[in-house]
Design goal:
Blueprint (H helix, E strand, L loop, with lengths): L15 E3 L8 E5 L5 E15 L8 E10 L8 E7 L5 E8 L11 E6 L9 E5 L19 E3 L11
Parallel strand pairs: 1-9
Antiparallel strand pairs: 2-3, 3-4, 4-7, 5-6, 5-8
């Protein structure tokens, strides 16, 4: 007996989903979109409020140093860094990339500046463990290769971390 179905067609079944945001901390294990550790730790080494040397007229900004332990020499993860208030509410965030962090002897350290509107509210700098370096091609952009799990939306002002 031969069974055949007519009218069936191949369907790519492209779906887009967004990963859940991990818990922010001063030191975090970087995770992929499936929340599996990627073998890299990111940490805020220190931070302080001070004027940026190139634009001192803007007043105090958050200057922080960070380190990626276990990162590859050229490619590696990126995480969001956020200046937060006492209640861990984000005041400003930006991504920091392990590939841009370098130091003596292969030490993956770097520094960044966060220009906050009210520096007196800053109580700390936290990192969000989700790797933001993944491509974000959506089904709408590329039905064949764009679907899948994407990193969480980057944190922004007002987000509770």
């Amino acid at each position: 007996m031969v069974l055949s179905l007519s009218g069936c067609s191949s369907h790519w079944g492209c779906t887009d989903t967004t990963a859940e945001r991990g818990e922010a901390g001063v030191s975090v294990q970087v995770v992929d979109t499936s929340r599996r550790p990627v073998g890299v730790t990111a940490e805020v080494v220190d931070w302080r409020l001070e004027p940026h040397p190139q634009v001192p007229s803007r007043g105090a900004q958050v200057h922080f140093h960070y380190r990626f332990n276990g990162a590859d020499e050229t490619d590696g993860p990126a995480v969001d860094a956020c200046a937060v208030d006492k209640k861990r509410v984000a005041l400003i965030c930006q991504s920091v990339y392990s590939s841009e962090a370098f130091g003596p002897g292969g030490d993956h350290t770097g520094d960044e500046w966060l220009a906050v509107e009210h520096p007196e509210q800053v109580a700390g700098v936290l990192l969000i463990p989700n790797d933001q370096s993944y491509g974000r091609r959506t089904c709408e952009q590329d039905v064949k290769d764009g679907g899948g799990v994407h990193p969480p939306e980057p944190a922004g002002p007002g987000d509770q971390l």
